[in-house]
Amino acid sequence: MDSDRTAPLWDEALRRLRAESAVSVGFGGAVEGTTVRIRHLAGARTELLRGLPIMAGRGLGGRAWREVRTLGVDDYRSATDISHHYDRPVAAEGLRAVVAAPVVAAGTVRGVLYAGVREAIHHGDRLLDAVTRSSRWLAGELAVEAEVERRTAVRTARLQRLEAAAGEQLRLAHAGLRELYGTVADPEVKRRLGDLLETLTPGTPDAPVLSRRELDVLTQVATGATYGEVAARLGLTASTVKSYMRDVLVRLDAHSRHEAVVVARRRGLIP
């Protein structure tokens, strides 16, 4: 389906086409799965063309798509070298001569651009050339847009990886600070560490209150540590760690370690 980004390009291609040629109606659309869906109209008197699904090989546009070349007929109704699956919407527009050109970007047909004239024409080459130029212009713009989207996706993925890595480092640092906090005897150092920990995890207004030890255990669990590893880091027994974790699950209304970590992060209790 046409994206919001590419729709203006199709509309501009139709505007250009009608501005430089004697086109009564310009229309077209992108390849959507197994069809070309007509979504863009300029100069149409009816809405019968809008949303029309064009199958490869059917009608003039379907042939242009399948054969990957610009095709035209001087009289659509009497043409013998195309199928007539779409006669009704074409007739409703009163079109005589029709030209269709595939929009080919990066070696792939991205859609089909049409031009229709309501009067009889005797020299259709100019119309063929105009539609071909417009389709090539559109193909170039679509290729640029696709490259922009590709680069944006690559950049977004890279930023997400960096953010995930930074978040993991922050969680490990936070866990280390909480572990250190429990071993510090100096009151001033302990106070400053406590202030730093509160800065890292200010909590939301609706966050439940967890004890220091419950936060210690939850913070270590959030790093992926097993109960045995948490016990070793905090100088506790595994059974004590499990007991604290059961209390955490109740306070956070969680049913698993993973859910508890998710809820705690959402409420600002851990980074």
UniProtKB/TrEMBL annotation:
PROSITE patterns (UniProt xref): HTH_LUXR_2
Molecular function as annotated in GO: DNA binding
Gene Ontology terms: biological process: regulation of DNA-templated transcription
Organism per entry: Nocardioides immobilis
HTH luxR-type domain sequence ranges: 203-268
CDD domains according to UniProt: LuxR_C_like (cd06170)
Alphabetized UniProt keyword annotations: DNA-binding, Transcription, Transcription regulation
Pfam family, one: GerE
Superkingdom, natural source: Bacteria
InterPro entries documented for this protein: GAF-like_dom_sf (IPR029016), Sig_transdc_resp-reg_C-effctor (IPR016032), Tscrpt_reg_LuxR_C (IPR000792), WH-like_DNA-bd_sf (IPR036388)
Family matches, as PANTHER family: DNA-BINDING TRANSCRIPTIONAL ACTIVATOR DEVR_DOSR
Protein name: DNA-binding response regulator
